[in-house]
């Protein structure tokens, strides 16, 4: 059992865990704000840190079938969004390898 090593981000705006303040992503890595999560609005990011990825599973979404993994804060283990492993629709392929963070689960941190 070891201590969780947390990465710290630097940027104009940092999004982090609402529960424990762990840093997740910078505004520079935000791809879109126009996503829908399980708890309302969600953001798409090109990269996030300090998350643990769950097992892949197939999910039917309004934009088609995707292979996704739920992602969890490494510090407090809250589920904060998901990662797109694969999209079957060609028009949705840009999401592959990117991450959704639910707005309800994050906040701006310093
Ligand atoms: Zn957390």
From TrEMBL:
Source species: Serendipita vermifera MAFF 305830
Keywords: Metal-binding, Zinc
Keyword Protein transport set for record: no
UniProt-listed PANTHER family: PROTEIN YIPPEE-LIKE CG15309-RELATED (PTHR13848)
Similarity-based family: Belongs to the yippee family.
Name of the featured protein: Protein yippee-like
InterPro entries per the UniProt record, alphabetical: Yippee, Yippee/Mis18/Cereblon, Yippee_fam
Domain Yippee: start-end pairs: 13-110
GO MF annotation list: metal ion binding
Tagged with keyword Amino-acid biosynthesis: no
């Amino acid at each position: 059992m070891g201590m969780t090593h947390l990465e710290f981000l630097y940027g104009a705006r940092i999004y982090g865990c609402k529960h424990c303040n762990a840093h997740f992503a910078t505004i520079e890595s935000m791809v879109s704000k126009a996503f829908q999560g399980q708890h309302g609005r969600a953001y798409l990011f090109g990269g996030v840190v300090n998350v643990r990825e769950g097992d892949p599973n197939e999910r039917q979404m309004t934009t088609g079938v995707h292979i996704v993994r739920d992602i969890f804060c490494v510090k407090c283990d809250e589920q904060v969004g998901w990662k797109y492993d694969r999209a079957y629709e060609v028009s949705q392929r840009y999401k592959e390898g990117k991450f959704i963070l639910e707005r309800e689960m994050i906040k701006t941190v310093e």
